[in-house]
Amino acid sequence: MQKSKSKSKSEKEEGLTKCPYCGSTAIVRDYQRGSLVCENCGRVLKDDVMDRGPEWRAFSQEQREKRSRGGAPMTYTIHDKGLTTRIDWRNRDAKGKSLSPKRRSQMYRLRKWHRRARISDAMERNLAFALSEMDRMASQLGLPRNVREMASMTYRDAVQKQLIRGRSIEGVVSAAIYAACRECGIPRTLEETAEASRVDKKEIGRSYRFISRELDLHLLPTNPASYVSRFGSELDLSGEAQSEAIELIKKAKEKGLTSGRSPTGIAAAAIYITTVMTGERRTQNDVAKVAKVTEVTVRNRYKELAEELDLETEI
DNA sequence: AAGACGAAAGTGGTTGA
DNA sequence: TCAACAACTTTCGTCTT
């Protein structure tokens, strides 16, 4: 009795039981990154939910007091990994009294050197700029925290190996994000990445190929199935239809129909077929629009799939 | 009238010499 | 660096519902 009451209260405190973007109830709390993420569409619903839990296990009250956490968790998305020290700008001591002139000039010098140490060289400045830009893009694309961390680490690697020289920071940032999305299984297309970026698709593609070669990312070609849930929710499809589309893609892959074809095209065709078969019909045009391919491509893929998989397409 | 279909020409990217 | 090539897009006319 008491248990169920406290449970409902904690749910209420979290505030979100349904994704406002796609309506899914599959909301996951990512404790490590401190955010609420919709598993269905991959959007971050609430960021920077502070982790108030203890840092370690504690077995007694005394230990609990000793071991409670202090400070924010470390992150790769800030150029000094969030491990910053700060010197107050007010010329006051700990008790709020004014400092003597001698002390004051000392503090002035300290602050100056502290600032210089923090953003010390070109690389640090580069990182600081790039990571803030990355954060902006990631928000615009609605990416969860883990993808941002992944992208940041990739970018750090690229800087360390001096791959940025002669290339635009923006391009490499976009490429790192594009790669991280694929790595985390919530791919965004090059176009989508380019929309959130200040550089064009071509540049991002070039940078991506370059860093993936130099950093040995060797990512597998995108699985069309990972687009299904996103496109599906944009089209208001039921869960059954979506999983049927994924099944279809699996079969197509076994027959080798997917290689060399654009994953978005395959996903679009599979979705179109299942909408026809399950009666939740969407037009080729609608499907093509959310997948950002043309009707013609949807048609071609759909014809291939229907032929090779011997689907009795009762239209 | 909207959607589906297909042909033909054009485009951007990859590959191999 | 260039040409060949496959995949994809654009465009447009025709057929179906």
Automatic annotation (TrEMBL):
Keywords from the UniProt entry: Initiation factor, Metal-binding, Protein biosynthesis, Repeat, Transcription, Transcription regulation, Zinc, Zinc-finger
GO cellular component entries: transcription preinitiation complex
Sequence repeat boundaries on the chain: 132-215, 226-307
Presence of keyword Methyltransferase: no
Organism domain of life: Archaea
Binding site for Zn(2+): 19, 22, 38, 41
Pfam families registered for this protein in UniProt: TFIIB, Zn_Ribbon_TF
GO terms of biological process kind: transcription preinitiation complex assembly
All residue ranges annotated as the TFIIB-type domain in the record: 14-46
GO molecular function, one term: zinc ion binding
InterPro entries in UniProt: Cyclin-like_dom, Cyclin-like_sf, TFIIB, TFIIB_arc, TFIIB_CS, TFIIB_cyclin, Znf_TFIIB
Function (record text): Stabilizes TBP binding to an archaeal box-A promoter. Also responsible for recruiting RNA polymerase II to the pre-initiation complex (DNA-TBP-TFIIB).
Sequence similarity: Belongs to the TFIIB family.
Protein name (Swiss-Prot/TrEMBL): Transcription initiation factor IIB
Species for this entry: candidate division MSBL1 archaeon SCGC-AAA833F18
Originating gene: tfb
